[in-house]
Design brief:
Number of strands: 0
Strand content: under 5%
Shape: globular
Order of helices and strands: HHHHHHHHHHHHHHHHHHHH
Number of helices: 20
Oligomer: single chain
Structural class: mainly alpha
Helix content: 55-70%
């Protein structure tokens, strides 16, 4: 216990990968010069500008996709028509307090909805301004994606490491092209949460690394992802637990100005932001249908879950080399029974990330250790989520798009996993 406690304290004071000491014990982080060999600064202006152009290019792909979708006369139908109706109602005297209906209601024998309406509320302004629900929904969804991309780029740039940012840019660009740019202009609720999930995962890394104000980003991005679709709930719950544990440890070990900043500013602002973001579900729980508790009870019922074999098969395919998510093959009808080669490659990649975590602890590298922790926790949560969902291959109307809706959370998980493996190298 003594050794473990000493190691935890050492890690809390250790320099991150950008060469900045992030002490959470004796007060605010102190910028301490590090040897040039240990730091990879952004350097010359052209390097930062080149990366900025790269991020802008990814954003431009989303914008062009939105314009093309509108130009071809897209109109909301079926599920997106319901999204349009609830978005319009968001600016009425009777706004929605829950999310889209979920198929779990069929099993429960009573209507159930996804956790919250935050996605509708965000889309309400562009829908109202543009007039046409179809145009407003598409551009509103594109704005959510662009804001998430900007947040991701900013979080990576603030690390001050051009290798890290370049890797992140390449992986995010690969994700956008593999999944299809139109996904990020779609108002469909599972599509709306993909980039916010990646944003909150990277912000969670920041909090663990001692950048406590990124808690505010975690709260907002977690709220949007979790409220839009139940498939994200277990993942964001795991990230919230890790974030809360890190903040509690840092608050307990800090003193003076450091503790005051955490307990009097960072955490209270995060709590208030969380209450505002979850005001709809809270009001519904207290004075409406009680959707949140009913969702919890529905998960306790016996259901035909896919099982851990299915979850592990997906984990292998998404972490093997090359990963399915990057190749665009996550839409395949069945990813069951991966080959022995892919299993071996996946185990090697996972062992490599675990080894990076051990090495980071030994070297007191809080930045890398935090990223590895977030990556492994996300991987475990995604595997459990895939194991608990209804097996999509047993659905009579199964098609490629149906499979994709059950696997969307693997894209952010895959990006963070690959980022950890490559940056640690």
């Amino acid at each position: 216990m003594v050794v473990a406690r000493k190691l935890a304290v050492d890690l809390s004071r250790s320099p991150d990968r950008a060469g900045v000491e992030t002490s959470t014990v004796d007060g605010p982080p102190a910028a301490t010069p590090a040897p040039a060999s240990a730091v990879r600064p952004l350097g010359e202006r052209w390097t930062g500008r080149l990366l900025t152009v790269g991020w802008a290019a990814v954003g431009l792909v989303v914008v062009v996709s939105a314009v093309d979708t509108i130009r071809t006369g897209w109109a909301p139908v079926i599920d997106t028509a319901l999204v349009a109706a609830m978005t319009v109602d968001s600016v009425s005297l009777d706004p929605p307090l829950v999310g889209m209906p979920t198929s779990l209601g069929l099993e429960a024998g009573a209507p159930l909805s996804h956790p919250g309406p935050l996605g509708f509320w965000l889309l309400a302004l562009p829908t109202t301004v543009l007039g046409e629900p179809g145009d407003g929904l598409v551009f509103g969804s594109a704005l959510v994606s662009l804001a998430s991309l900007a947040g991701i780029a900013l979080l990576l740039r603030r690390r001050g490491d051009i290798v890290l940012e370049a890797l992140g840019l390449g992986l995010v660009a690969g994700m956008v092209f593999a999944i299809g740019a139109r996904t990020f202009t779609s108002p469909l609720n599972p599509h709306l949460g993909i980039l916010p999930l990646l944003l909150c995962t990277l912000a969670t890394w920041g909090v663990l690394a001692g950048r406590h104000r990124q808690l505010w980003v975690v709260v907002l991005a977690v709220s949007l992802a979790a409220q839009t679709h139940l498939g994200y709930v277990l993942l964001v719950a795991a990230l919230v637990v890790v974030t809360a544990a890190s903040l509690a440890f840092d608050a307990a070990r800090s003193s003076g100005a450091g503790r005051g900043r955490l307990t009097r500013r960072v955490i209270p602002v995060g709590v208030v932001a969380g209450l505002l973001a979850w005001s709809g579900p809270i009001v519904n729980q207290l004075f409406g249908s009680g959707n949140l508790f009913r969702l919890v009870r529905s998960q306790a019922r016996d259901r035909a879950a896919a099982g851990f074999d299915h979850g592990l098969d997906l984990a292998v395919e998404m972490t093997s080399v090359p990963p399915r998510w990057l190749l665009g093959h996550a839409r395949d009808q069945s990813l069951a029974d991966p080959s022995a080669v892919r299993i071996a490659l996946s185990l090697t990649a996972t062992a490599w990330v675990v080894g990076l975590l051990v090495r980071a602890f030994r070297r007191r590298d809080r930045g890398l250790a935090s990223l590895a922790i977030v990556s492994l926790v996300s991987l475990a949560a995604a595997t459990v989520t895939s194991a608990r969902v209804v097996n999509p291959t047993t659905i009579p109307f199964f098609d490629a798009e149906s499979a994709l809706l059950y696997r969307l959370f693997w894209w952010p998980v895959g990006v963070v996993f690959a980022l950890t493996a490559l940056w640690g190298t």
